[in-house]
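Our example copied in:
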Amino acid sequence: MTDTQYTQPLPNDLIAVWLGVFERQKDFGEHAFNQLADEQFFTILAPGLNSCAIIANHIAGNLISRFTDFLTTDGEKPDRDRDSEFNAPQTHTPEVRAQIVQRWERGWGVLFDTLGSLTMEDIGKVVTIRSVPHPVHAAMARAMDHYSFHIGQINIIARQLVGTENWQWFTLPPGGTKAFNAKLMGNG
């Protein structure tokens, strides 16, 4: 690769693309949550794993920390207690679930507010995460990678708990690709 390949201008719709990816990830997580009974939301399938509740709480903590004052402060805020995000809630009540979902909504709101305030000029800026400099576009790629990993975990856990026969697919169900492609491409 030549140096000019790294100096090409970024597309003007980059922020909108990021927004679309993050919105889809949030929706994908909530699609899984909505299929779980309260007790399932808190279920840990095996030692060393996390419940959907724990993962949702962790994503929320990360979102709040990383995207509060995104351009001006380190993404790892001094008041964040990351380790506690992985503690299983002591009670598995609808009220505790609602608190976690409220924190989840707050975290995504911080991200979406930040994305809504960014300009194309901001994309060339550098932010820090744990004192490590990241160009804004790299910080966004890192966040997309992180959240998609955890959203995938949430969906695998939820599908295990709900059962394949009762699972409502967010994406194409197994065996549905040919019909979907035919319809999409005008062949069906």
User: Anything to note?
Assistant: Strands lie at 126-129, 132-135. The domain at 12-184 is CATH 1.20.120.450 (Four Helix Bundle (Hemerythrin (Met), subunit A)). The mean pLDDT is 92. The radius of gyration is 19 Å.
